[in-house]
Amino acid sequence: MKVVLGVAGGIAAYKACELLRLFTESGHEVRVVPTRDALRFVGEPTWAALSGHPVTTDVWESVHEVPHVRIGQSADLVVVAPATADLLAKAAHGLAGDLLTNTLLTARCPVVFAPAMHTEMWQHPATRANVATLRERGAIVIDPAVGRLTGADTGPGRLPDPAEIFQVCLRVLRGAPRDLAGRKVVVSAGGTREAVDPVRFIGNRSSGLQGYALARTAAARGAEVTVVAANVTLPDPAGATVVRVESTAQLREAVLAASAGADVVVLAAAVADFRPADRHDVKIKKTDGEPEPIRLTKNPDILAELGQRRGTYPKVIVGFAAETHDVLANGQAKLARKGCDLLVVNQVGERLAFGTPDNAATVLVAGGDPIEVPRGPKEDVADAVWDAVAARLS
Ligand SMILES: Cc1cc2nc3c(=O)[nH]c(=O)nc-3n(C[C@H](O)[C@H](O)[C@H](O)COP(=O)(O)O)c2cc1C
Q1: For 374, which of 65, 117, 214, 225 is 20 to 30 Å away at the CA?
Q2: Is the backbone of residue 10 left (phi > 0), alpha (psi -120 to 50) or beta?
Q3: pLDDT for 345-368, tens place per residue?
Q4: Over the stretch 20-32, which tens digit does the pLDDT of each residue have?
């Protein structure tokens, strides 16, 4: 596929080199179109050598090939990473002063912007309005990640991990539908930990891979995504706001807060049903005799609570059930009991579901037929969920 990689003049321009490699190594033909200021950060020889194509910033070179029109017209995808505040403003207003902005005006393929800038610039009403304009026109603008910015500052504005931007682009290239555009989605991911003492906990084997696949695919389908991540060590999915939690109580609080005004809540995290009744403030010491038993108490049932609280929002609630036996029978009973719209049931055990990149599942639908998802990447299960969610939302 033909990809145009636009690079604007932000400090994160060096990260676009990695994005470029990901495209070229997966067989894509990439034309890099930097802005003049982007070349102050990473020079023309780097882009030319890595892409294998000549690189220019203005419309006055190789004029006989009319590059200001042809590059955009022939692209299957244009991705601008990093997109500066300046570039977003120019794109929103249709300015065409250089090769990149001309390309943006002539492209009829999907366009992805990955903005990166200081928090103040990202949150400025002018930038917000420009982003809204671009999204209204159908462009995909990936929300920046929260984290370390230039210098000592931290906050929203960081370019997401290049591998995650690449994943969004791949899904867009494969024709991901934009059926979640304008929808607010909350996904819980990972596995909760319940403290026994300051160093020990009761936990589970969930890695967060399925929850992150749900977040990544929802973002590619246009949703505004919040991930409540319990003990996940994976890179943040591009475009998602990640709220980190440890225990079930923290996850409950974060999910309920994020659910206000959300269209969809998907509870994919493995939450502990029980927690130690007493948390020791100091480490339990080894003694000669038998250890004291750990008394457990029940944790709140977040899925059931969400089902009971449902008013206007969330419109669709999706639960996950990991079962080791009688998978479908247990799943159907849980769907009826919890009052959710969809329940994704999967068999778990050694090398099944937890920590693996692939999964097989059945999506149980309240009032509808179950959907079988054969073993494949966790993104396949995620897309089957979003297909069913989109059908319910419409
Ligand atoms: C060291 C340095 C870092 C910068 N980083 C950013 C940035 O991350 N995001 C941004 O929007 N602008 C950033 N700027 C400002 C842009 O470079 C400036 O707005 C420039 O005109 C952008 O041009 P372009 O959009 O045509 O590439 C930075 C400037 C400097 C000097």
Answers
A1: 225
A2: beta
A3: 987 655 555 667 788 899 999 999
A4: 999 999 999 999 9
Residue pointed to by tokens 């709140």: 300
Ligand 1 contact, 157 CB (< 6 A) = no
Q: How much is the pLDDT for 65?
A: 84
Give the pLDDT of residue 122: 97
Peptide bond into 314 cis (omega under 30): yes
Whether residue 85 has its Cβ less than 6 Å from ligand 1: yes
Q: State how far the alpha carbon of 266 is from the alpha carbons of 9, 189, 236, 277, in Å.
A: 37, 9, 17, 28
Q: What DSSP state is assigned to residue 58?
A: S
Average pLDDT over residues 268-289: 91
Of all protein residues, whose CA lies closest to atom 28 belonging to ligand 1? 10
What phi and psi values does residue 297 have, to the nearest 5 degrees?
-130, 155
Q: Which residues contact 129 (CB under 8 A, 6 or more apart)?
A: 92
The pTM score is 0.86
Mutate to test the pocket of ligand 1, among 15, 84, 87 (most ligand atoms within 8 A of CB): 84
Q: State residue 350's pLDDT score.
A: 53
Closest to 107 in 3D by CA, of 2, 213, 24:
2
Name all domains of the chain by residue range, CATH numbers in brackets: 2-173 (3.40.50.1950), 184-393 (3.40.50.10300)
Please give the distance, rounded to the nearest whole angstrom, from the Cα atom of residue 127 to the centre of ligand 1.
Answer: 14
Centroid of ligand 1 to alpha carbon of 84 (angstroms): 6
Q: What pLDDT digit, counting tens, does each position of 81-119 carry?
A: 999 999 999 999 999 999 999 999 999 999 999 999 999
Ligand 1 atom nearest to CA at 83? 11
Task: Look at residue 110 and give its three-state secondary structure.
Answer: coil
- The answer to whether 299 is a known catalytic residue is no
Rounded to the nearest whole angstrom, what is the distance from the C-alpha of residue 277 to the centroid of ligand 1? 53
Residue 59 parent element (H or E): none
